[in-house]
Structure formats: structure tokens, C-alpha cells
Design goal:
Elements (H helix, E strand, L loop, with lengths): L2 H14 L4 H15 L8 H20 L3 H13 L5 H13 L3 H12 L18
Helix pairs in contact: 1-2, 1-3, 2-3, 3-4, 3-5, 4-5, 5-6
Length: 130
């Protein structure tokens, strides 16, 4: 099972078991982090996979309220060339969580203009709560 699939499985467990939510989300984070190479490669295919892993990791970090770390992770995904709408959306969620509404809205706008990868997902976001 690859890291993205495994992390999705932990997230499903978290959604179904609120009492163990923190543990399942931490496991999802660990799986994604362990799949990232220690040193970035110059291979474009590897960069695309890394960007997908980072986009998923950014979603998990946002869902845990680790917004500052999520911003760093998601900006790295963009540096690697991510054109996934989920990367921009998740960055918007992280920026909203850091009370940067203008920057967040800019990212949400960029997300609307891009296609979503089937490998990644969005972080939970409740605009009414912001």
C-alpha cells in the first residue's frame, strides 16, 4: 500500500472514531512524512509524486491545526511545480487558519482555475467559522 492510500485509510478511521481522532491523524502524518525523500531529486516524475505527498501532508497538518507547518509544506509543493487545485486550496485553508484572509482568498481563487488531482484531497474548511 502506498503512503497516500495508507494515509487516506487512517483519515477514514479518524472520521469514524472521534475518540482516536488524534492518534489516527498522527499516523496519517507519519506515513506521509516517511514517504518523502530526505533529499529532493531533480527527476520531474519524482517531483510530481513529492508534490502530491506534500499536498496530502498539508491537508493533514491543516486538519490538525498545524497551519504554519502546513504553509511551509504546501509552498514546497508549489516550488516542486504542483498544479493541483488541492495544493492551492489547502494553502488557503492554512493561511485562513493563520488569520491571513487576503492571502487565503488569493489561494482559493487560484484553486478554482486548476484541476484537482485524484490522488490528493482538501483539508476541512468551514468558512462560517472563520
Amino acid at each position: 500500500m502506498d503512503a497516500i492510500t495508507a494515509s487516506k485509510a487512517y483519515i477514514k478511521l479518524a472520521e469514524g472514531d472521534a475518540g482516536q481522532w488524534d492518534a489516527h491523524m498522527a499516523a496519517a502524518e507519519t506515513v506521509l512524512r516517511s514517504a518523502l525523500p530526505a533529499a529532493r531529486q531533480t527527476d520531474p516524475q519524482a517531483n510530481r509524486q513529492d508534490a502530491a505527498l506534500l499536498t496530502c501532508l498539508g491537508a493533514v497538518l491543516c486538519d490538525q491545526g498545524k497551519y504554519r507547518e502546513a504553509v511551509n509544506v504546501l509552498e514546497t509543493a508549489l516550488t516542486l511545480g504542483s498544479t493541483d487545485s488541492h495544493t492551492h486550496y489547502n494553502l488557503g485553508v492554512a493561511l485562513a487558519g493563520l488569520a491571513k484572509p487576503r492571502k487565503a482568498m488569493a489561494q482559493f481563487g487560484k484553486a478554482q482555475d486548476l484541476a484537482a488531482s485524484s490522488l490528493t484531497w482538501t483539508a476541512y474548511f468551514d468558512p462560517q467559522a472563520q
